[in-house]
Design goal:
Elements: H1 14-24, E1 26-29, H2 35-42, H3 53-76, H4 87-96, E2 105-110, E3 115-118, E4 129-134, E5 142-144, E6 147-152, E7 159-163, E8 170-174, E9 177-182, E10 185-195, E11 198-208
Antiparallel strand pairs: 1-8, 2-11, 3-10, 4-8, 4-11, 5-11, 6-7, 6-10, 9-10
Length: 214
């Protein structure tokens, strides 16, 4: 199967995306894939290792655009991490530190399946942002199956957020933690993700990690 290409990332407003990520830990990339291309990608049984060229190119471009934010977040949280200037160097750095398993995946949920709240690991070999794409159509291919993020701030109740994704829409989301400015300075917020119960049909999505194995 030929892997379809996404919409070019330079067609998005990356100033707005950075503002959204700082404000809420996620930012939408509407119509990242055309409907037919999203459905074609959904038919893939798995992602090859290494990734096929269109996805590998998307990931490299995304890394370059998100690198300034990743470095800014690390500095705000006083993390002792180093992100290389380009994706190949970063992936090589991760491989040397023991990251050899491919983490990007096409995941499928059939009714009545769901994905419980997940919190991904931190560390120098984990990029703080990742891409998700919905590859099936809500209300047509499936019902339910909303992408939910929760945000845990110190001494506060968790705040749930439902991301409004349609067929082919992408979102950049915080992988695990992000900095937030408060009255007493910067504090660390924990981000978790879940998919609500699929009530009917099949929900298909792409999870593209930027700290995969090469």
């Amino acid at each position: 199967m030929t892997t379809p290409a996404s919409r070019p990332l330079d067609q998005y407003d990356w100033t707005r995306i950075a503002q959204d990520l700082d404000a809420q830990g996620w930012a939408l990339l509407p119509a990242l894939y055309a409907p037919d291309d999203a459905r074609a990608l959904a038919r893939a049984q798995a992602l090859s290792d290494p990734l096929p060229p269109p996805l590998a190119g998307l990931r490299a471009d995304l890394y370059a655009r998100l690198l300034p934010m990743a470095r800014a977040w690390a500095a705000s949280l006083n993390l002792d991490v180093t992100y290389a200037d380009d994706l190949p160097a970063y992936l090589q750095q991760n491989r040397q530190s023991g990251q050899t398993r491919s983490l990007s995946t096409i995941h499928r949920l059939h009714a009545p399946g769901y994905q419980p709240l997940l919190q991904h690991a931190d560390g120098a070999s984990v990029f703080p942002l990742r891409l998700i794409v919905l590859l099936s159509e809500p209300g047509v291919d499936f019902t339910g199956g909303e992408l939910v993020m929760t945000e845990q701030r110190p001494r506060m109740q968790s705040r749930p957020m439902v991301l409004p994704l349609g067929l082919g829409d992408g979102a950049v989301i915080a992988t695990s933690h992000r900095p937030v400015s408060g009255s007493q300075g910067i504090y660390r917020v924990t981000e978790r993700q879940a998919i609500s119960r699929v009530r009917s049909g099949e929900r298909v999505g792409l999870d593209l990690m930027l700290h995969d194995a090469p």
